[in-house]
Amino acid sequence: MISVTTLRLADAVARSTVPLWPLADHIGVEPRELLDAAALARLPPRSLIHVAQAVKFPVAELFTRVNREPAYNDDAARVGACLGDHPQGLTRDTLARALSWDLDRAESALHGLNVRLATVGLRLNADGATIWIEGSPGTLQPETRVAFDRQPGDGQVNPDLGQAVWVATFGHDLPDGPPEGLAVAFRRNLVEASSGRSRGSDAVRFSLMLAEHGR
Asked: For residues 138 and 160, what is the distance between their CA atoms, to the nearest angstrom?
């Protein structure tokens, strides 16, 4: 289970101006793993300390067990409803502003929600500042996953996800910054990091017959 502290560390990495490539190389991971709370949670303590020190995150908080219950009984349910309505994820700041809470209350609610989700095969995960709900690894049997993969799709493509893959594949910059679907595209391995930039994955470029152009 991912702790609120790990989610906060991933957020601190995303907000930091520290170059990710040297930091990731030092501890032996991919740069995007530093933005993934689930990946951070798997790091050994020595590596976590190095990351925390690099981004000026309080090291002591890494080893402080969080056992707080939500400040209000229905906070976890309200945050769960918000994340359910926004499957691409929300930031703690966005949640706090929308619910008129302070950040401590939002974090407490997220912790309470994560505890509840663990009982039904779900968990919170994060990519940088964005938090979303996903299935817990290892909960589904391999044969069940295969059965789902064999089901035909509905032919619909999320516009934000499609835009993110298009931008990464063809290198077009948007005036408003990175497309909102970029985090989802990374999670689904449709986009990958290359030389500090995002680009369409090998599978995407092959499907578009771009592999021979090395784009």
From this structure: 29
* CB of 88 closer than 8 Å to CB of 184: yes
164, amino acid identity: A
Identify whether the C-beta of residue 70 lies closer than 8 Å to the C-beta of residue 76.
Answer: yes
Chain-centroid distance of CA 165 in Å reads: 17
The β-bridge partners of 93 are none
pTM (2 d.p.): 0.42
pLDDT one-digit tens code per residue, 111-167: 888 888 877 888 898 877 889 998 877 676 767 765 655 554 555 566 777 777 777
Amino acid at 98: A
pLDDT digits (tens, 9 = 90+) for 30-45: 888 888 877 888 888 8
Task: Say which amino acid occupies 141.
Answer: Q
Output the CA torsion sign for 173, 25, 58, 91.
Answer: positive
